[in-house]
Amino acid sequence: MATTDSRPAGGIDRRALNRAFLARQLLSGRHVMTAEAALEHLVGLQAQAPFPPYYGLWSRLEGFRPQELADLLTGRRAVRIALMRGTVHLVTAADCLRLRPCFQPFLERGLTANFAKDLGGLDVAEVAEAARSLLAREPHTVGDLTTALRMAWPDRPANALGNVVRSLLPVVQIPPRGVWGMSGQPTYALAQDWIGGEMDAEAGIDDLVLRYLAAFGPATVKDIQAWSGLTRLRAVVERLRPRLVSLRDEEGRELLDLPDAPRPEGDAPVPVRYLAPYDNAILSHTDRTRIISDEYRKAIATKNAVIPGTILVDGFVAGAWRIDQGRASTTLDVQLFTRIGGREREELTAEGERLLEFAADDGASRELRVVDA
């Protein structure tokens, strides 16, 4: 990893901000560390689709193999649970117990805001307790659980009842969901029953903010709120200010950071990287121009909020990618948004071939197709 910038706290331009961010995100070069340690450092990986976390770890870790993450899931040392922004994230079991209490008020507010019409007059705590009793006996698929709940509340939509469970109870989605090469319906278990242990009521927002800065900083207060979905964090930041340094970006905005976190020079070389679909590196700031231009952000936007895999060239998004897998062949399609140089194209091709090798079944033919801007 690049060395820490020894310059005094002050201004930081967009390229230096980019390099600092890539260093925090383990994207300045592949790292020799376990998948579990990487999940801890990154405060989890966004995982509303089952397999993007595998690609996210592949892009960051030396020698990562899917079985390592699959073993964490089946061994109950990592879980999929709704956390930041109410979105499913894949986190370590320890982080599940630490982080879930931080987001309980946010999830409850979201439930009220999004399902007020469907839940009007309903005692949602009673629904949650009914679901808790069912899950205490055994895990349930989401469909089976909502069907059982509708027997008691037949006038309420299944989707609304399912979101009561997801918001009021710490439920995890258990394997085979999320296990590489396998499929399965979303199936809930109570986190404490699945992992063992209790929710950490002492875990605080202060630690969450500090961990965000370690993995995503330097950042504004609005950035922290955009990543977490939490509000009113300025008071938290002011409480932490003696432990932080203050920087200014090119727009004059204050960025907070940890004093000893890496802040490489803006001209530090960085490799071409294929980022996973829904990668947190793309989604975790109010101003995302530290990694993707507003123009390219619009280019990857979809009506159903699906975020494709993206490609970093010189540290910034320069294209998008997708993999199509069949029984006999795997194809990697790359769409570039801008022209790139010869050396960068060679690196793009070599990294694409490595991605194909990672994703394809043994014996399947492989094809890399690049469409220029």
Keywords, please?
373 residues; alpha+beta; 42% helix; 2 domains; disordered N terminus; 16 helices; three-stranded antiparallel sheet; globular
Which H/E pattern describes the elements?
HHEHHEEHHHEHHEEHHHHEEEHHEEEHE
Helicity level: 40-55%
- Unreliable stretches, pLDDT < 50, 5 or more residues? 1-8
**Average pLDDT level:** 94
Q: Structural class of the helices, strands and pairings?
A: alpha+beta
Overall geometry: globular
State Rg: 21 Å
State the strand order across the main sheet. 9-10-11-12-13
- As a percent range, the share of strand residues is 15-25%
Count helical runs: 16
Task: Please count the beta strands (DSSP E, at least 2 residues each).
Answer: 13
> What is the CA–CA distance across the termini?
32 Å
Quaternary structure classification = single chain
Structure description:
The chain is α+β, with helices and mostly antiparallel strands and 373 residues long. It has 2 domains: 1-267, no CATH class; 292-371, no CATH class. It contains 16 helices and 13 strands. A 5-stranded mixed sheet has the order 9-10-11-12-13, with helices on one face. A hairpin with a 3-residue loop joins strand 11 (316-325) and strand 12 (329-336). The longest helix is centred in the N-terminal third of the chain and has 22 residues, at 93-114. It is globular. The two termini are 32 Å apart. Residues 1-8 have low confidence and may be disordered.
